[in-house]
Design brief:
The protein is α+β, with helices and mostly antiparallel strands. It folds into two domains: 138 residues, Orthogonal Bundle (Helix Hairpins), CATH 1.10.287; 169 residues, Distorted Sandwich (Glucose Permease (Domain IIA)). The protein contains four helices and twelve strands; from the N terminus they run H-H-H-H-E-E-E-E-E-E-E-E-E-E-E-E. Helix 3 packs across helix 4. It starts with a helix and ends in an 8-residue tail after the last strand.
Length: 314
């Protein structure tokens, strides 16, 4: 969640910077127009000052007859109206420019506040990451903690096995799946997330304590927030927390085949939702993980765990 919030803050800052650039360009254009209008007004005022206030009446009354005097009066009135319009335009543009500058100041303040929030969230995220890494290291070093973690994981695996057994008992295959079923995809699946496999299927022995655990799937190391994708089309059967697995998604692909995706941070699907192959269903996190940021992935045929490495494309 924190990573997504940081990304949203980054987008907001980018948008504000674009708005600031537009405001600066507009202020430059408006400023140039205002300077031009002020120069015209200054020239006009100088002319009026040099001629004096009586000039207008001399000009009007200097007409040879009443008709000429009337035409001159109308002309002077038109000039006076244009002078008034020019003064109004200068004042209006000046006020508009002041509003634009105030908007720019406000936008700059928003950017500064956004950047400050970004930096605080990034520092918080980094601190939490260091804390989690420290805790994981302590668990790996401490034999008692290690055995407790293994015991908890074994209970969680049994819980998951029972859960899939219950799903299988109530199984109703999704419709609209590709012909041939999930079984024909063996050796052709893409990994659910791009990354290095740091936990293989099967038994593994702890280098220090000699404790043996069985991994029912594979663990794929990835950057936090990386997209997790459904490996094939199916229907979401389960979305919830499982101890040892964290945020977990189970998808049925028909014929008793299920795939499981664990340790997710954000999840974008819900139970009974149909998904397509390669559709993004979640993001990588470290919920319930002892390996840091990773996606734990399993393939099941009913309750039996299958080796995902035999299903991935070479």
């Amino acid at each position: 969640m924190a990573t997504r919030y940081l990304a949203e803050l980054g987008k907001k800052e980018k948008l504000l910077n674009q708005q600031i650039d537009a405001l600066r360009k507009n202020i430059t254009v408006e400023g140039d127009v205002l300077v031009s209008q002020k120069e015209k007004l200054a020239t006009r005022l100088r002319q009026m000052y040099m001629r004096g206030p009586e000039h207008q009446w001399v000009f009007v009354l200097g007409g040879e007859d009443m008709s000429e005097k009337l035409r001159r009066y109308k002309f002077m009135r038109m000039v006076a109206e244009r002078d008034a319009q020019l003064i109004h335009a200068v004042n209006e543009r000046k006020q508009g420019l002041e509003l634009e500058q105030a908007g720019l100041t406000e936008a700059l303040a928003d950017v500064a506040a956004t950047r400050s929030t970004q930096e605080a969230e990034a520092a918080k995220l980094q601190k939490n990451k260091r804390t989690r890494v420290s805790m994981l290291n302590e668990i790996r070093k401490d034999e008692t903690q290690n055995k407790k973690a293994i015991s908890k994981l074994e209970k969680s695996q049994e819980q998951l096995k029972n859960l899939i057994g219950e799903l299988e008992r109530k199984r109703k295959d999704p419709t609209g799946l590709p012909p041939g079923g999930f079984a024909k995809l063996k050796g052709r699946l893409d990994k659910p997330v791009a990354g290095k496999i740091i936990g293989k299927f099967g038994k593994s022995r702890h280098a220090t304590y000699g404790t043996v655990t069985f991994n029912n799937g594979v663990d794929i190391q990835a950057v936090v927030g990386a997209p997790i994708r459904a490996v094939a089309a199916g229907r979401v059967e389960f979305v919830d927390w499982i101890d040892g697995y964290g945020n977990c998604i189970i998808i049925t692909h028909g014929g008793g085949y299920y795939t499981l995706y664990a340790h997710a941070s954000d999840i974008f699907v819900r139970p009974d939702q149909n998904v397509l192959g390669n559709e993004v269903i979640a993001e990588v996190g470290d919920t319930g993980s002892l390996r840091g940021y990773a996606c734990h992935f399993e393939i099941r045929k009913s309750k039996q765990a299958l080796n995902p490495m035999e299903w991935f494309a070479r």
